[in-house]
Structures are given as structure tokens and as C-alpha cells.
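User: Before I run my own analysis I want an independent prediction to cross-check against. Here's the chain; please return only the C-alpha cells and, at the end, one sentence I can use as a sanity check.
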Amino acid sequence: MDFAAAMIQLKAGEQEILVGAQKSGDVYGVDPETTEVVWHQKPGRGGTQGGINFGLAVEGDTVFVPVADYDDDILPVGDARPGLFAFKAFTGKQLWANVTRNICEEREHCDPGISAPVTAIPGVVFAGHLDSRLRAYDSATDEVIWEYDTHQEVITLSGEPAKGGSMSVATGPVIANGRVYANSGYGIYFHTPGNVLLAFEAED
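Assistant: C-alpha cells:
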């Protein structure tokens, strides 16, 4: 039930809010002066590996919340809501929800949730999933506008073949100089192993 994800602090004029999310699947907006809970949402079921694990993102006054809701063989799978959710930071109003379709099929240790932090730039939210997919979401509509399966074999700069895997822990995609950088592979706690750092850039 712990808070593994860092809090987000937002200010707009005289308004100020702290947004925190925990592994129970709950998200809170808290007044930092009074400690009053201004709003509360529960997008995730929660469980051993989330709820919300490692990191939210913000664009303007919208907070993007990744939910893992990993199938831990303890809590009901039918109650799980793995995916990405968007809320208004100062009111808690839900703007959209994209519950990820399970496309794991027969791949072992594969799950559709988002455990790693997400990264927001104007118009786009990047999320690395436990199913090895790196996805880019339209921040206004929740549409998946691009995705890449990091579990496929690539030839690295050293000339060696390698694969990615589940994307987790406290590192999300990094955006710099027109490129997206993402590490992939997380082979503990029943996830898909791998070991690559990938770089992407937009096509001309």
C-alpha cells in the first residue's frame, strides 16, 4: 500500500496542490497548507505490484497516472484496470481512461500494465509497459498514436543481438534533442528479462 511514486506539486495563481498515488490504486489531491484531501480517485485495483508503482507525469494542469494492476494470483483479475489515466490536477476530474488490452497471448511473464514512470511532453505521453511495448498516447484523447515491441531482436551498437523485455522500476522514457530514449528488460518478480537501451526519432 506504500507510495513508491514521487509526489507532484502544481501551482496556478493562488492554487496549489500535491498529487500522490499509491500501490493500492488510489490517487489523492492534497492541499499542502491544510493537508486536506481535496479529491480522491481510484483508477486501479491495487495489489502486490501496483496500483501505481513508480511515477506520474504532468502537462499543464493534467496529471497522467500509470496503473500496473499486475495479475498476482491473489486479487481478482477481473477487477484489474492496467493502463493509463488522465485527471485534472486541481479537481480530480477524470478526463480519460485507456485500459490496455492484453495482447500477451502465450508469452510467459507478460502483463499489459504500466509499472515504470510515464513521461509527458506537449501533446504526447510516453509509457513503457510490462508487456514490453513502448507506447505513445495522445494526451488529449488517450489514442495510442505509436507503439514499438521492445522484445524483438535488434543488433546493438556493439554488433551483438539483444532483446528488451518488461519495462519497470523507477526509470521512464527520456526525451532529448528530438529523440526518445528507453531502457527495456526487467527479469525479476515474474517479468520478461532483457537488456537494451533504445533510441527513437521521428521520421522526416
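Sanity check: The longest strand covers residues 15-21.
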